[in-house]
Design a protein that fits this description.
The protein contains six helices and three strands; from the N terminus they run αβααββααα. By secondary structure, it is mainly alpha-helical.
Length: 127
């Protein structure tokens, strides 16, 4: 699979739609898009995504039905790593500290406790 960060805005939009619907025809995808392009443009984007390895298609009657070829969580982790690489010098710690120090919202003590537990669980899994 190629890097999700290298998907165009429309390609990401289509993948978001497919992840939420799990499988869809061209017209179903087009109906979910914001300011949708023509059906031919959507089909062209689907071919590009298929060639990049992001989705699979199979014939269903007279149409093709598309579904993601990758798990949403794997695509999300790859995209998150790209953001961390660009904005936080590749440091997960820097990204987490920036998130914890954000000014707009307070992080509740409950959220911090859950995060602490997850870190401890992760440490246990690695030992």
């Amino acid at each position: 699979m190629t890097d999700p960060a290298k998907l165009s805005r429309r390609e990401r939009e289509i993948m978001d739609i497919l992840f939420s619907l799990e499988r869809a025809t061209t017209e179903m995808i087009r109906e979910q898009m914001k300011a949708p392009p023509s059906g031919n443009a959507v089909r062209a984007l689907l071919v590009i995504l298929e060639n990049k390895g992001y989705l699979r298609r199979h014939r269903k009657g007279r149409e093709y039905e598309y579904k993601p070829a990758v798990q949403r969580s794997k695509a999300g982790l790859s995209a998150l790593q790209h953001v961390i690489d660009i904005f936080y010098e590749g440091s997960f710690e820097n990204a987490l500290v920036a998130h914890l120090n954000r000014e707009r919202e307070e992080i509740s003590p409950e959220d911090l406790l859950r995060l602490k537990r997850r870190i401890e669980e992760s440490e246990e899994d690695q030992s």
